[in-house]
Amino acid sequence: MALRRPPGSQGRTQVVPGRHFDDGRHLASYADRIAVRCHRCGKEGWVLAQWQPYHWTARFRCTGCSLSLDSAEGTWVGQVRYSGRRPCGYCGYQWVSVCEQRASAAHDALNSLPGTCRQCGRQCDVAVGMSRVRDGSPADPHFGLPLHLVESTRAGVVWAYNAAHVQALQVFAVSKLRERGGVHNASMISRLPTWMKLARHRALLERALERLLQRLPE
Length: 218
Hints:
13% of the residues lie in helices and 31% in strands. It has 3 helices and 13 strands, in the order ββββββββββββαβαα. It has helices spanning 163-174, 194-197, 202-214; strands at residues 19-22, 33-37, 44-52, 55-61, 68-70, 80-86, 96-102, 112-116, 123-127, 129-132, 149-152, 157-160, 177-180.
């Protein structure tokens, strides 16, 4: 998920008990303060970010191992995908393609991967480019750090960036009537997994969110 600046809130401004109104707020609107765990030592901490048109600036300082990450350096420690293609160097078949996903590019940055030609069966090296993986998994969108606020349930995984994010999910979870203000399928609420929207999982989701609030770092 590429981070975008969230649009201004529109629609109902007054809270109606028992009802939830989706005004189109994006997940990115909660991305200015994210509770994470250091990928190196596991210590919990905060990614602090700021929207400066038209890009985000973010930083992370680990109090456990003194790791320092800054978005100005283009650092990414999360999952990456290497992909590329080339004509076969033996029979000329187009294309020999490769695609491989790895947990991190921090220690094993690659320039090429071996690919097998489907026509002649021979292997040749294929130059690859790297892209960041943002697949909706519980990771910080700025650096790819694992989120601290993650809770597994029998129905699925619940995660959040910060207290405000948890509270927004709580309002949704307890509401028996849910409305949308003509927004498209880009709001945080509209992108929730199907199981979270089912009435039979309402109590399960509420309990998971309460546990997340109790685990907020200092």
